[in-house]
Amino acid sequence: MSGLIFDLDGTLIDSAPDVHAAVNKTLEEIGTGGLPLEQVRGFIGNGVGVLMERVIAAKGLSQDAHASLLSIFRRHYDADPATLTTLYPNVAETVAHFHAMGLPLGICTNKPEAPTRTILESFGFLGAFDSIVGGDSTSARKPDPVPLLTARDRLGVTDVIYIGDSEVDAECAQRAGLPFALFSGGYHRQPLDELPQSARFDDFAELPAIIARLLAETA
Ligand SMILES: O=C(O)COP(=O)(O)O
């Protein structure tokens, strides 16, 4: 039995506008000017703790403020994580396609589990995903393989393909020993050709054919 596990930010959703809004509300609350959207987009992918370290470094603030800034950020973000967030083109149709096929589907993201669930619910996706692992759901975060292997175990399948957008996801899949399909339209920082990958796609409409090929190879 095989399943699919998806990364969230930069893969299924463009979450950067809501993350950016919460970062700038946090900075405003401490009387500091905001950061541009594109800079904050580049800070996403290693979880909210690292995001806040990058914000603090970008603003030249003291890392001593990390815990309090992270808690202000979580208050703003968790209250409103989906208003400005959008699905990438053809994501809804493609997830519905895999769900209708009866493929077990999971999420493995470094975003904390609570806002992950709020976002999935707001897009009507909660019922489609049987296993949701966030950055605070296990003892480790990607690129450590533990969250991805936990998501696989919770799906109750032996074979999974991981679908993600970044060097964090590519390394995680490699360390977990799982096939990896790379979405080129997300938040990667390294050149795409340098990332370990089993397949690459630019549009979710291409994914069903890629998954059919990878599943046939793993069978
Ligand atoms: O860094 C985050 O908070 C989430 O990023 P991810 O969904 O790409 O794992």
TrEMBL record:
Pfam families: HAD_2 (PF13419). GO terms for molecular function: metal ion binding; phosphoglycolate phosphatase activity. It is an enzyme of class 3 (hydrolase). The keyword Flavoprotein does not apply. Its cofactor is Mg(2+). The keyword Hydrolase applies. Coiled coil: none annotated. Mg(2+) binds at D7, D9, D165. Keywords: Carbohydrate metabolism, Hydrolase, Magnesium, Metal-binding. InterPro entries: HAD-like_hydrolase_sf, HAD-like_sf, HAD-SF_hydro_IA, HAD_2, HAD_sf, PGP-like_dom2, PGPase_prok. It catalyses: 2-phosphoglycolate + H2O = glycolate + phosphate. GO terms for biological process: carbohydrate metabolic process; DNA repair; glycolate biosynthetic process. Belongs to the HAD-like hydrolase superfamily. CbbY/CbbZ/Gph/YieH family. NCBIfam families: HAD-SF-IA-v1 (TIGR01549), PGP_bact (TIGR01449). Specifically catalyzes the dephosphorylation of 2-phosphoglycolate. Is involved in the dissimilation of the intracellular 2-phosphoglycolate formed during the DNA repair of 3'-phosphoglycolate ends, a major class of DNA lesions induced by oxidative stress. This is Phosphoglycolate phosphatase. It comes from Rhodovulum imhoffii.
